[in-house]
Design brief:
The protein is globular, with a radius of gyration of 19 Å. The protein has 8 helices and 9 strands. Helices cover 37% and strands 26% of the residues. α5 crosses α8. The protein has helices at residues 2-15, 64-75, 106-118, 149-161, 172-182, 186-192, 222-232, 237-248, and strands at residues 18-25, 28-36, 41-50, 80-84, 91-98, 125-131, 139-148, 165-170, 199-201. The strands form 2 sheets. Strands 8-4-1-2-3-9 form a 6-stranded mixed β-sheet, with helices on both faces. A 3-stranded antiparallel β-sheet has the order 5-7-6. The longest helix is centred in the first third of the chain and has 14 residues, at 2-15. The protein is α+β, with helices and mostly antiparallel strands.
Length: 252
Amino acid sequence: MQALAQWWRRWTRGSVRHAWGLAPQAGAWALVGLARQNAHLAQVHTLASLQAPVGQDASDPSWLSLHLRQNGRASGQSYRLNMALPGAQLQEGYIDFPADFPQEDWQYEVQLEVSQALQLSTDEVNFDFEPTPSTGGLVQRVHWMGCAQALLTEFKSCTRAAGWRLAAVESETQAAQRGLRALQGGVASLLTQPPQDWQFRFNDLGRSVPPPEQVNAPADSEETIEEALRQVMTTPAGPRLVASGLALRAWQ
């Protein structure tokens, strides 16, 4: 059964041809569509800045439906969409559980933590969590994030009205790191290439064996990656990197 499940995941990833990400962009939204180029690479095929109509409150997401519908028609079809919420609307953090604490009880504890962080009741929050890599010690750290259930419901309604489906929500930081780590050329490409020329490697998402010409390619250091992210997140390229990282979830 495990081998069958692994085969199914590989087949599903291989069947994905296009993927989309939506990221906050200073009162607007950056929409990035990626297309699978070959077994190793995806490239940008759509890059758009979605602006609220003049005179309409930019914080009201209902106007997104029109933009998403138009972009879906322009590409000939609609897709699953992964998005990042503005930092003020998303809370995240960590909980350290004793290593012998039952995993089936993590959800309840995380839900309490999110509700306290958002100052909402437990049935008014939406949340997700995952364990960080275990070090084999006495503590298991769990990374969580959450938002108001009403906010997520509103965004789901907007995307559904446009014929799209909101598949996942995550933090800007998480998506940006995924995008940069998979970016062909790494930090150098991030700082010198226009976003419409970006290409992303599936092998750095754990999806395939790297092409021969990339096997010995030098990797950026963690310090270099963090510094590049600090620089780019204050520029227009930052939300586009986030949106690219969100789209890449489709192949993760």
